[in-house]
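Forum > Structural Biology > Help requests

Title: Can anyone predict the 3D structure of DUF4389 domain-containing protein?

Hi all, first post here. I have the sequence for DUF4389 domain-containing protein but no way to get a structure on my laptop. I'd be grateful if someone could post the structure tokens.
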Amino acid sequence: MSNQIETQIDVSLTERNRLTAFFRLILIAPIAIFILSFAPQQFDSDNMSLIAGFFVLPVALSIVFRQAYPSYLLAFNDAFLSLSTRIDAYLLVLTDEYPSLEENDVVSVTFPEVDPKALNRYLPLVKWFLAIPLYIVGLIYAIYAFFLTIFAWVSVVLTGNYPEWCAEGVVGTIAYWNRIVGYALLMVTDEYPTFSL
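Reply #1:
Sure, ran it for you. Structure tokens for DUF4389 domain-containing protein below:
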């Protein structure tokens, strides 16, 4: 049994809504604004940075100094990753169901059982560095998923069908990135993610 974040997306392959697929970038705007409100922007004269909506630093500090993973941070990170995945699935035309703010039956993100005492308390200091090869491979997968999504979008708009081979690649890429986030940022596991989709 894997100790990684598991992602499952039930893709509708046939009888897709061509109209909503065609206007997907416009329809995604309200929920995109909502999720971006969790990513505070910090503007300085010397530095402009965008911080993700996850709680990373408090988790790392809790694990390093107290060897604890606060349940409220785990619950928030779990809910935020699930919402992000639902938005990704809708944006990438995997589903026609508009992303709900609550859990749904189409997209499922399952965290492993987190035992903070079993986590290496010093690994959060270097996980970001150890994950560099994962990021590089992930960028290649993201480019691959981008082209699959373009092809699938054209297919859905013209025929109302989503090719199964495209779905496997795009869902695999989302699951791959969720495993990386679980390892390097959310620190729910010390198990190094595999490079496979």
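The first strand starts at residue 6 and ends at 9. Helices lie at 18-22, 24-27, 29-36, 57-66, 71-91, 127-130, 132-159, 164-185.
Shout if anything looks off.
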